[in-house]
Design goal:
The protein is mainly α and 107 residues long. Helix content is 51%, strand content 0%. The protein has a domain at 25-52 and 68-101. The protein starts with 26 loop residues before the first helix and ends in a 12-residue tail after the last helix.
């Protein structure tokens, strides 16, 4: 008996990802990613501060914890946009260091 071989499809990339990613490497995208990173960093700081509470509250519940997490996420985004700590700016400057097309106001 001979084995039937099935043809294997050639995989060149994910169908949902474009092969040309040059448009993604822009100063605006770098700044946006740096601001999102700063928001995540601030959110982690808020989570750590909330985890360090000394006692249980009278009205603590899972729903209240979920609401507080959503509130902290929005607060961290707002802080990162309106009064940034500088982490995002430093990260963007570091990542653009060896990329002349991403430095300053170019592009």
């Amino acid at each position: 008996m001979s084995a039937i071989s099935t043809p294997q499809p050639t995989v060149t990339g994910s169908p949902s990802v474009a092969s040309d990613t040059s448009r993604l490497a822009t100063k605006e995208n770098l700044d946006k990613a740096a601001a999102q990173f700063e928001a995540l960093f601030i959110n982690q700081m808020l989570k750590s501060a909330r985890a360090a509470k000394l006692g249980d509250g009278l009205f603590d519940s899972e729903a209240l914890d979920q609401f507080r997490d959503m509130q902290d996420a929005k607060l961290s985004e707002t802080i990162a946009v309106h009064t940034p700590m500088g982490i995002g700016k430093a990260l963007a400057a570091f990542l653009a260091q060896n990329r002349p097309d991403l430095k300053g106001g170019a592009k």
